Amino acid sequence: MVVGFSSLFSAGSQGTLATLWRKLPQAKDSAMIRRDGHIPVLAEESLSLLEVHQGGRYLDATFGGGGHTRLLLEASPAARVEALDRDPSARERLKVLEQDFPGDRLGFHGMPFSRLDEVPGTFDGILFDLGVSSFQLDENARGFSFRKEAPLDMRMNPEEGLSAAEWLAQAGEGDLKRAFRDYGEERHWRRLTQMLLSMRPVDRPKTTLALAGLAEEVLPRPRGPRRIHPATKIFQGLRIAVNRELEEVAEALPKAFAKLNEGGRLVVISFHSLEDRIVKRQFKRFCGQPEHRGDSRPQQDRQVLAENITRKPVRPTAEERQTNPRSRSAILRAIRKTTP
Ligand SMILES: C[S@@+](CC[C@H](N)C(=O)[O-])C[C@H]1O[C@@H](n2cnc3c(N)ncnc32)[C@H](O)[C@@H]1O
Fold this sequence. Notes:
Blueprint: H1 14-29, H2 43-50, E1 57-60, H3 67-75, E2 80-85, H4 90-100, E3 106-110, E4 123-129, H5 134-138, H6 164-170, H7 173-183, H8 189-198, H9 208-218, H10 232-242, H11 245-258, E5 260-270, H12 273-286, E6 306-308, H13 318-323, E7 331-337
The chain binds S-adenosylmethionine.
S-adenosylmethionine (SAM) binds near residues 40, 62 and 113.
């Protein structure tokens, strides 16, 4: 698992590897991490890159099951963590941490991370572990899974905005195209879009199985060794659209960067290429590098505000992928703020 691990990090982060080595066995075996069957993704790597220190202040922008927050609190007895999640049910899981870490080391903010500028103070490290949590995926009634019958909801915060069924009922051609083609990366998006547009809005799918059935009916059966259910990409695209996931990330990253102290670290774990592209470009901008191939602006027009501390994006080891299949597509990038 650890062979070649140090090559993942830049020279500037070598000091953190010692910390990582010390924490590794304890983190891997900790019953705490596996409480409720929840395993934080790239736990050791993110903790190491955040370089938790005595008295440091950290922001976990995606509290979820509190797995990373717990690791941050355990890493240093004097560290303080502000956690944030837009899902009201995260408060239930927060209670467990509040019991385990009494005092004022842990704060919580129920809000989308695009509003993290409203959290008071500045931070030595900020972590984003994007996407949905295993708690959300596993709770059938939330409507994220196409395998179990439930109202088609898919909202991370069921108290805000339109459910996926309501979104589908009012979606025009452009909305459906963006969700299925751009966010779902479904090649045959046109077929499902046409089918939905031919239906009266009130007749469009209202449950998970109704939408999954429609996808099965109109989309070709995927072929090849890694066959996925025809609804997989459709559900992914719809979820991203309903929760405005990409807009949230694009709005939050500059706000997070502004909240970092000098030397503070920003660590982001993404789960698909669309998210990762936003992170990669934004990080290049902070580091004063060309943001994409066509970016030919002269160097003097760029500002170097940060350094990249992951020479290559970090991915889960084969061992982690095996023990936690949900980590499979995770990709981590991190930067360190160099200017005040
Ligand atoms: C992958 S889980 C995080 C798991 C967490 N790191 C842990 O170890 O338990 C992502 C969490 O981020 C939350 N989330 C996703 N997008 C969000 C947003 N834009 N604003 C606030 N919370 C968000 C989700 O509700 C979910 O609980």
